[in-house]
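Consortium newsletter contribution from the modelling node. Members have asked for a concrete example of what our holo predictions look like. Here is one, prepared for the zinc ion complex that several groups have been discussing at recent meetings.
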Amino acid sequence: MLTAINQDGCLVNLVMDEPQRNDRFYCPGCQGQVRLKQGTILRPHFAHVSLKSCQYIYENESAQHLELKSTLYRWLKHEVAVEIEAVLPELGQIADLLVEERLALEVQCSSLSIQRLQERTKAYQDQGIEVLWLLGKDLWIKDKLTALQKQFLRFSQNMGFHLWELDLDKQVLRLRYLIHEDWHGQVQCLTKAFPFEKGRIMAILRQPYLSQPLLSFQGRMDQQLGRYIAQQLYYQAPKWMELQRQAYEKGENLLAQPLEYFYPQVRLPQSPIGFAQIREHLDSYYQDFSDYYQKQQSKRVQQVYSPAFYKQESQSNLGRKALL
Ligand SMILES: [Zn+2]
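And here is the predicted structure:
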């Protein structure tokens, strides 16, 4: 941790202050004694002398976590009232960064259970605090979305499903947006990177919600998808066995279908347990998305858009119908 109470009862943090080495220090959460550590691998930090009395567990922090937390703190401090390692007794947890007492930024560098993530998210929401998870290296999106990553997804009409990544090596805050999955389960999305401590961080974090020109990209389509599906069925991949079962119920066979049957190939992420960070109802988005591609004459290319686009298309269709 980067904050402690010194022997005079003042809160000190190692990003801004240079505390006296020989002072005694205490944990702002449990009041237990902590020690100032100045090693060679980790930046200076405080560690509990004895951990057993502390319910605000954030020990064994990685160098990555400490560095990212202090970088974000310096960046935020220029423009907003921000607290680092804010103790929230009602929640029994410590927010990595708390902006103006209503936005918590959590630098998440290690995996956690989906249940724990859901609980922590809900605890914040119940207190009227919005929480934004910023993901360290181990949690970045690689080829496919894991079940855990789906629980970090946020949503906006302009940037669709999106999430934030922190890259310590490249020194950037990265926004992955218009996140989709294709039939292979591979992620297709757009990416924007913002260098640390350049530009206004609050404006950057708000970007998904600002009005902006329509976003779009051309989806990658697999012209040999039939071959892939045949292979998946041959190896009895559960997802494809289930889709084939559903096809049989309609008197169809996936292996006999033309490529157009699988259009659109770039699809919206699915999560049977919902999305912990998203409170909007997404049903109409999924419906508008599906309707739009069904109506396309040419099914040889797929252009992917912001959710706002599909909504507009569906409303203008309704308008046209009303006129007739
Ligand atoms: Zn403690």
